């Protein structure tokens, strides 16, 4: 009986020893999923650099790895890129959220793959104004000749105190003939009236009146003389000067002429000279044209009225046609009268007395 009990205890001790050894061996061996039995090495996680349009870089937060084999998902990093505009202002677009991808594993943890953030294309504000067009003023061009159609009648009066020495009422123009490449042409300048810058000056004597009509471009000079013997008044001297671009080939030309041995615009003392159209040639291709001309010097009784007109030869009435017509009519009348008398005499001779 004692022998059987000792065997039972020995077997129980051996079984307990085997179980204890097996338990110790089980504790000393690592799990099959963690082979080989060594400490985990922390993997190197690159920090992706995100470039923003405002010139600064921001690093996302690294992923935290735990020793239990799991990887904690980091909080998403919100990048707010700043968009810079060309006008100097900065506009803040909507934030872009990056969601890094994390793989779970027992051994290896991969770093999060940075998500390509889409940055809104910056809106370009075209604030650059176009440069102002600086127009260089062209050099002033000389005035062009006034057309003949713009002739206006000017009233030019020379006074000495309350006395009127000379009056001229006319549309005046200076006409110059010139040649360009053997082609004859002419330019005209219309003399302005007193309302448009002209001025009358001169002096008055008993038998001479010096009449000066001046304007910006030149002058016209008339010397009225009285002939007591003939009891007439005329212009014995005339001169002019003009600085005006009448010739396109020579715009700076100066035209001048003078004649001291003429007898123009003759009229009786106390009368006025009248002519609808008259042209005076002064030499060098220069003409002085008068239209609707009326002038008088000396013995002006009424300052507002000209004396009786003495017409120029072109305006004097031509009686030659009237005289010719009258002569023809007289001849016809004579012929008719003679024919009547002859016919009557024949009838009288045909009757005989009984």
UniProtKB/TrEMBL annotation:
Keywords: Disulfide bond, Endosome, Glycoprotein, Lysosome, Membrane, Signal, Transmembrane, Transmembrane helix
Ranges of Polar residues composition bias in the record: 94-107
Localization in the cell: Endosome membrane; Lysosome membrane
Pfam family, one: Lamp2-like_luminal
Biased composition (Low complexity): 54-93, 115-138
Entry's Gene Ontology BP terms: establishment of protein localization to organelle
Segments traversing the membrane: 321-342
Keyword rRNA processing: no
Region of interest (Disordered), ranges: 21-152
Cited PANTHER family: LYSOSOME-ASSOCIATED MEMBRANE GLYCOPROTEIN, MACROSIALIN
Protein name: Lysosome-associated membrane glycoprotein 1
Native source organism of the sequence: Albula goreensis
Phylogenetic lineage: Eukaryota, Metazoa, Chordata, Craniata, Vertebrata
């Amino acid at each position: 009986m004692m022998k059987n009990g000792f065997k039972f205890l020995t077997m129980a001790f051996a079984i307990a020893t085997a179980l204890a050894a097996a338990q110790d061996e089980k504790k000393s061996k690592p799990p099959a999923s963690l082979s080989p039995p060594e400490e985990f090495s922390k993997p190197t996680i690159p920090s992706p650099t995100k470039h923003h349009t405002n010139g600064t870089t921001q690093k996302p937060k690294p992923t935290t790895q735990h020793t239990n084999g799991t990887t904690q998902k980091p909080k998403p990093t919100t990048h707010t890129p700043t968009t810079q505009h060309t006008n100097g202002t900065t506009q803040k677009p909507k934030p872009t959220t990056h969601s890094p991808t994390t793989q779970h594993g027992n051994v290896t943890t991969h770093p999060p793959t940075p998500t390509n953030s889409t940055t809104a294309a910056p809106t370009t504000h075209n604030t650059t104004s176009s440069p102002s067009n600086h127009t260089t003023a062209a050099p002033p061009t000389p005035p062009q000749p006034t057309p003949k159609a713009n002739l206006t009648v000017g009233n030019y009066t020379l006074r000495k105190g309350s006395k009127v020495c000379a009056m001229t009422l006319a549309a005046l123009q200076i006409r110059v003939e010139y040649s360009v490449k053997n082609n004859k042409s002419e330019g005209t300048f219309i003399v302005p009236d007193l309302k448009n810058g002209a001025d009358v000056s001169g002096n008055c004597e008993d038998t001479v009146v010096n009449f000066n009509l001046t304007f910006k471009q030149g002058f016209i000079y008339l010397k009225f003389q009285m002939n007591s013997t003939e009891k007439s008044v005329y212009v014995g001297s005339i001169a002019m000067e003009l600085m005006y671009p009448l010739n396109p080939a020579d715009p700076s030309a100066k035209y001048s002429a003078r004649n001291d041995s003429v007898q123009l615009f003759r009229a009786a003392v106390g009368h006025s000279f009248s002519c609808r159209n008259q042209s005076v040639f002064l030499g060098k291709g220069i003409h002085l044209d008068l239209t609707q001309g009326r002038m008088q010097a000396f013995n002006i009784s009424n300052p507002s009225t000209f004396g009786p007109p003495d017409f120029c030869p072109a305006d004097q009435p031509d009686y030659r046609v009237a005289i010719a017509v009258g002569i023809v009519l007289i001849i016809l009348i004579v012929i008719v009268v003679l024919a009547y008398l002859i016919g009557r005499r024949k009838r009288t001779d045909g009757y005989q007395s009984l």
